[in-house]
Amino acid sequence: MTVKTTNNLGVLLRSYEALYNWRALAMLAGSFVLGGLAISGGAAAGMSSGSAAVSMLMGLLGSIIIVVGMNASGLMLVDQAYDQPIRGFAPAFLGGVQAALYVIGLLILLGLGFAVILLAAYLLSLFGRIPGVGGFLGFLLGGPLVVVVALAYAVLLLAGPLMIAAVWHGEGFIASLSRAVGIVTQRPLEVFMHFLVLGLLVFPAVAFIFAVVFVGSMFVGGFFAAGSFGGMGMGGFGGMGGFGGFGGMRGMEGVALGGAGMGGAGLSIGLVWFLAWSVVSLIYVLGIIFVYRAVSEGVESAGSEQIGQKLAQFKQKLDDYKPRPAPVTPPPPPAAPPAEPPAPSPEPTSAPQAADTTHCPACGADVQPGDAFCGSCGHQLK
Prior knowledge:
The chain is mainly alpha-helical. It contains ten helices and two strands, in the order H-H-H-H-H-H-H-H-H-H-E-E. The protein has helices at 3-11, 22-49, 52-81, 89-125, 134-169, 173-186, 188-226, 250-257, 264-295, 302-321; strands spanning 358-359, 366-367. The protein has a two-stranded antiparallel sheet with strand order 1-2. Strand 1 and strand 2 (366-367) form a beta hairpin. Helix 3 (52-81) packs across helix 9 and helix 4 runs antiparallel to helix 5. It is elongated.
């Protein structure tokens, strides 16, 4: 194990710093409480009305609230992990909605990929039923198919959290999937060791928080259910089966649904359990982000570019195979109107003939062309 890997594993100790991020804690705890109210209230309403549709609808609403809240808090924890200013509640909520859609789509895509591998393994297993050679083919295919399915399941378990962290980090839809799968396939041992150490670090917190909440729920739930301290049956601690005379664990009934004899106290206790889940989840989420930051260094995301190129080529092929409409011959242009004959040019007219008589330039009297002097004023004309 290199020094760099050891340092990266040591960073996981900072997962507990998630509890100092009060915005992420408030966002996650609020979403868990609201989602828990919707789930518990829907379950109680469904039991009282006998309608399973109400329980399913409220359960779906509560699940959506929790998923969006987890993604919003994940964005805040990414800011903390990369020493960036923590974003506000409104930007985190809006980003959480988009991230939740990405995460759900990617998880469905991963699940479909694993289902395809299972289907292929099932189809290959049918060769083992061929009479005569089925045993030999089963021997050849059985072991390799186990390895293939096991590896695919390991990739599913390890790539899922990394893919979610990639979405929070700002990677695109296809880039998050290809980057997570690339990290797992290129560094499987390093990824496994990081998640193993993270689990060992978080497990004590999970065990401690759930243990104390469980004990508190048992006592307080028993008080409300039995109605008296003596009704707790304190002598019944002989084993988990007689863990207090709660009348069939009525205290735990109220934890989830506000069960019989507990009323609103059961609902309140259930919310405490959802709050405990939010604290544990916050620590684990920051740990996943640290794991992603540690194992993604130096891993190129060329897979997303290749997938994008393949998708572009596939789209181009689809466009090529689309039926094209027959070429339409454009209509002939309208015939030009016949040219009008040019207008006849006017015939040149001869200059008017000079009149036989003219006028004297001095007095204006009429004179003849051959006169040398004006007969009226005597003006010399020539």
